[in-house]
TrEMBL record, chain A:
InterPro entries: Centrosome-WD_assoc, WD40/YVTN_repeat-like_dom_sf, WD40_rpt. Gene3D superfamilies: YVTN repeat-like/Quinoprotein amine dehydrogenase. It comes from Zonotrichia albicollis. One of its GO terms (cellular component) is microtubule organizing center. This is WD repeat containing, antisense to TP73. Pfam families: WD40 (PF00400). Signal peptide: none annotated.
TrEMBL record, chain B:
It holds the Pfam family ADIP. The keyword Nucleotide-binding does not apply. The keyword DNA-binding does not apply. One of its GO terms (biological process) is cell adhesion. Its main location: other. This is SSX family member 2 interacting protein. It comes from the Eukaryota.
């Protein structure tokens, strides 16, 4: 049971960057120069800020007191306070340029990465101090904070060798600095318990390295040698499992005791297991009785006439999924497991195999078996688990959002006229609502909580 | 004798070589004699003419003497009456003739048999030859096939060799390519490193340029500094803080490890509980009185161990001990018990599979039968219930439709019921009738069969009588000769004669006793006659018998089975036989 409330933003141009952060129930959106802060439950405008240039990126601080607006073109970051609307902060990176900006976990420091990854500047909002971190590595996931916000790991590159530096976030003091046995470090990710750091190599080589907080190498894992390797990595919320999606269309799961592989999850194009439920989205054009047709047609009727509905059908196995043969002679082939996410209760793992783009695979982690496959009509753009319960939201670039839970799945259409192409979604931290984003609009989907009897 | 030869030779000059082989070609093989026989066979006429040519009025004496000589050489008695010199003994001559004829017949039969055998053998030979040629062809074919297969095998082998070569080449190629790949990779890595170094130099340079120049723009404008989220002041970086950081880090790690250890401990205790439970269960499950002597006989220490373990079980604090001290003991005891349990279960399994497989199956079958029976019963019940419901519904409907004249309807109902009952009775009656008819039919059939059997029996009897009669006629030849006229009578008298003959049962008289030639001649004639007349008489006799008997039978039948039509049927049967 869910309903969508839609908020139209008139005159939006350019990229809409919007982050729905939880906390006191506020949402922020930006339209060109302006930053609009709304109440998450009523969508009423609470604040309106004007920046000096077109905003390219916004981010809430962890305590939801500040919002960071980055204008990469100008090398400028502006920070606004919610409590003191007249307070402001402006950080100029000058001629060094700016490519990335983010909050530190405490919400009082801003980390700016300069162009060419020359350095990371840490600006403090509390003191006038500035810290520099030199030689940051230009890679997909070069900076990682532990969940408790105490430590930060930074991937570095010096003298053609990869290093990892661990900083204490409280005073930006270097805690550990060690080199890694990687060819070309691609990403780092802390385990949710903040004690293990996973580092993986470039896709040319399948290699995962696991480091303890104190810099000891706990283990390294290598599944195979020659073909393209790791594509994505995800820790389970309990830090028990590390799921590694790779270009060979498999997910390998490592355990946290021996760091050995527990199982391999394959993503075949044909589902044969009788215990797997395959939900297939089917479109149906609305059937209207002639007695309901009136002249002139009502607006609702007209809109419903031109929009198709869709629903889920349960397919009988074996089911063959829509398979796209990857082009071999192109870089970054659309093959392999590119998206991975554990549910909040560790019980489910959702994956997407890039050469079967219309399917979401949901694995039962208690049985280590494929539980459900959702086959959509269009390719999956994004999926995210409800932060409170095993509930998955999926969007496919259509005007529908799809929700799966162990009880079943539903299709929710964004009401209103026109096509609302959902390209991204984000859950509210309470799990009560969900932000749906199209190119130039957003809407909030409120999920009615079932009465607990 | 010598003079007879001189006479006969010219006479039989044309056929002498064949007819008298013993004169000139005595040494000819046995086949010659058969040829002679064959030649002498052609027809009675030629034989007659031949005999007439052989014996004429003039040389009858010589012929007879020649024949006599021939016969004596062949081992027959002389045809001359020994006592009276040149007088012919007609009886012995006839006997000789008969013997010769019999011999000839025998020879002919033997010849025929031999010919047939010859033919058979010839056909067998042909067949065998055919087989031989066929087999030869097959052999040839198989040889060719073998050659073909060998050729193919050779080709395949060469192909295989080629493929092996190719595989080897491919492997080499793969190796080479791998080498190429690795060399390229190293080259690429080297180049990458070079480029990266250059890039790093550039970066350094850029850094210097960007950072060293006093960038006025590089700044932060803040309205006023905000407090920290935790409310504390930022600490200075000192060695002390560094040490504290270390400490904190280790604290974090330690807490994590502690947490993990706690989890493991929890898991361990859970597992221990399960283990304990299992142990208890196993011990309670294993039949001690059964298992103990066996264990003792096999190995003593196991039992003591087990007992120890049982003793240990009671000590709960044993589980609180760290695993290391008790681990070995524990695992050993568990293992032993587990083995015992396994053995026990296997034994039980064997018992079950051996003893109960049959019984189980039977049980299963019985239960199924029972089930079917039950279902049948239930179905029947359902049927009955349905019928009842239907009738009730009908009644109800009738009641509902016409409430006014219910009494009339009831009456109607009763009438209907009555009628139904009558109809039922009528049906039963008809069925009975049908059954009766069926029975009657079966009885008629049985009667017919009986008649047929009787007929067959009578025929047999007739045949037997005929046989008896024939033997009688053969026996009473001598007697017949005394009363020749008797044989010329009608069949009825014949019958009587047969009966009397059978009653007399005289021993058969020897032929030689009848001395006179003339009565002998007559008797022969008569016997011929009697033989001719014997057949029809034999044919008639049993029929007459059957006829008279059959009439009695049919009368009986008509008495017992009135209105069955059997009477006429039997009569018809006899009418057919009578003519």
């Amino acid at each position: 049971a869910s309903n969508c409330q839609r908020a139209g933003l008139d005159g939006i141009l350019g990229r809409n960057s919007l982050r729905g952060r939880g906390g006191p129930g506020t949402g922020a959106s930006c339209v060109q120069h302006r930053l609009v802060v709304r109440d998450a439950s009523t969508l009423q405008i609470l604040h309106l800020y004007t920046c000096t240039d077109q905003i390219q990126y916004i981010e809430w601080s962890s305590d939801s007191q500040f919002i960071l607006c980055a204008m990469y073109k100008r090398g400028l970051v502006q920070v606004w306070s919610l409590e003191q609307p007249d307070w402001h902060c402006r950080i100029d990176e000058g001629s060094a340029g700016l490519v990335a900006s983010c909050w530190s976990p405490d919400g009082r420091h801003i980390l700016n990465t300069t162009e060419f990854h020359l350095r990371i500047t840490v600006w403090s909002l509390c003191t006038k101090s500035v810290s520099y971190i030199k030689y940051p590595k230009a890679c997909q996931q070069g900076v990682a904070f532990t969940k408790d916000g105490r430590y930060m790991a930074v991937a570095e590159r010096r003298d053609c060798k990869d290093f990892i530096s661990i900083f204490v976030c409280r005073n930006w003091q270097l805690l550990r600095h060690f080199d890694t046995e990687t060819q070309d470090l691609f990403g780092i990710e802390w385990a949710p318990n903040g004690c293990v750091l996973a580092a993986w190599d470039t896709c040319l080589e399948y290699k995962v390295l696991l480091y303890s907080l104190d810099g000891r190498l706990l283990s390294s894992y290598r599944a195979y040698e020659w073909p393209l390797g790791i594509k994505s990595i995800a820790w389970s919320p309990s830090s028990q499992f590390l799921a590694i999606g790779s270009f060979d269309e498999k997910v390998r799961i490592l355990n946290h005791v021996t760091w050995k592989k527990i199982t391999e999850l394959e993503h075949p194009a044909v589902i044969t297991n009788k215990k797997t439920i395959v939900y297939k989205e089917v479109e149906k054009s609305p059937t209207l009785g002639t007695e309901r047709l009136s002249f002139p047609p009502t607006r609702a009727l007209a809109s419903s006439l031109f929009s198709t509905q869709s629903k889920y059908d349960i397919c009988q196995v074996p089911v063959s999924l829509n398979y796209i043969k990857p082009v071999a002679d192109k870089a970054n082939p659309k093959v392999g497991v590119g998206m991975l996410a554990f549910s909040a209760d560790n019980c489910f793992l959702a994956t997407k195999n890039d050469n079967i783009p219309n399917a979401v695979w949901i694995w039962d982690m208690r049985k280590l078996k494929l539980a459900v496959v959702l086959e959509q009509l269009y390719s999956i753009q994004c999926f995210q688990w409800d932060p409170c319960q095993p509930r998955l939201a999926v969007c496919t670039g259509s005007s529908r959002v799809y929700l799966w839970s162990p009880a079943g799945c539903v299709v929710v259409k964004v009401p209103g006229e026109g096509d609302f192409q959902i390209v991204s979604l984000s859950w509210h931290s309470s799990g009560d609502s969900m932000l749906l984003l199209s190119k130039d609009h957003f809407c909030v989907c409120y999920l009615e909580r079932e009465e607990v009897k | 004798m010598g003079d007879w030869r001189t006479v006969t030779v010219p006479l039989l000059s044309s056929d002498s070589k064949n007819i008298f082989p013993y004169t000139s070609e005595r040494k000819s093989p046995a086949s010659m004699s058969s040829e002679v026989l064959r030649l002498s066979l052609p027809s009675a006429k030629s034989m007659h003419s031949f005999f007439s040519a052989f014996c004429t009025e003039e040389n009858i004496e010589q012929s007879i003497s020649y024949i006599d000589r021939e016969l004596t050489t062949m081992g027959f008695p002389s045809i001359y009456v020994e006592s009276k010199g040149k007088e012919l003994d007609l009886v012995s001559m006839v006997n000789c003739m008969n013997e010769l004829l019999v011999l000839q017949h025998k020879n002919l039969r033997a010849q025929e048999e031999i010919e047939i055998q010859h033919l058979k053998l010839g056909s067998d030979m042909d067949h065998l030859q055919n087989c031989y040629t066929k087999l030869k062809e097959q052999l040839e074919l198989s040889k060719r096939e073998i050659v073909g297969l060998q050729e193919r095998d050779r080709q395949l082998q060469s192909k295989n060799r080629n493929l092996h070569q190719l595989l080897k080449n491919e492997k080499d190629e793969v190796q080479k390519l791998q080498n190429v790949i690795s060399s390229r990779a190293t080259q690429y890595n080297h180049d990458m490193k070079r480029k990266e170094r250059e890039y790093n130099k550039l970066k350094e340079r850029l850094h210097q340029l960007v950072m060293n120049k006093k960038d006025k723009k590089l700044a932060m404008e803040v309205l006023n500094y905000v407090g920290r989220a935790d409310g504390k002041r930022g600490a200075w970086r000192t060695d002390k803080t560094e040490a504290r950081n270390e400490e904190e880090m280790y604290k974090v790690l330690l807490s994590d490890y502690e947490q993990r250890q706690k989890q493991l401990l929890l898991e361990n205790t859970e597992l221990k509980k399960v283990l304990q439970q299992m142990k208890k269960d196993i011990i309670s499950l294993l039949p001690p009185q059964k298992q103990k002597p066996k264990e003792r006989s096999e190995d003593g220490p196991v039992l003591s161990d087990q007992e120890e373990d049982i003793g240990e079980l009671n000590k709960e604090n044993m589980w609180e001990l760290s695993c290391e001290t008790v681990r070995e003991q524990l695992t050993n005891s568990i293992r032993k018990q587990w083995r015992m349990l396994k053995n026990h279960v296997e034994k039980l399994d064997n018992q079950v599979s051996r003893g109960h497989s049959g019984a189980l199956n039977e049980k299963d079958v019985i239960s199924r039968e029972d089930h079917e029976l039950e279902t049948g019963k239930l179905e029947l019940e359902i049927q009955q219930c349905k019928e009842m419901i239907r009738t009730q519904q009908q009644l109800l409907q009738q009641q509902l439709t016409c409430d006014d004249d219910t009494t009339l309807l009831l009456q109607d109902c009763y009438l209907l019921e009555e009628r139904e009952r009558l109809q039922e009775e009528w049906r039963l009656f008809r069925e009975q009738k049908r059954n009766f008819e069926k029975e009657r039919k079966s009885f008629t059939e049985a009667a017919i069969r009986l008649g047929l059997e009787r007929k067959a029996f009578e025929e047999d009897r007739g045949a037997w009588l005929k046989h008896q009669f024939l033997s009688m006629t053969a026996d009473c030849k001598s007697e017949n000769s005394t009363t020749p006229s008797a044989f010329l009578r009608s069949a009825d008298t014949d019958l009587r004669l047969v009966r009397s003959a059978s009653q007399q049962k005289r021993p058969p008289s020897v032929l030689s006793t009848t001395a006179s030639p003339e009565p002998c001649q007559i008797s022969q004639y008569i016997t011929q006659n009697s033989v001719a007349s014997e057949k029809p008489a034999a044919d008639y006799l049993p029929n007459l018998w059957v006829g008279s008997d059959g009439k009695e039978e049919t009368e009986e039948c008509t008495k017992t089975w009135e209105d069955s039509g059997l009477d006429t049927l039997c009569r018809n049967l006899h009418m057919e036989q009578l003519p």
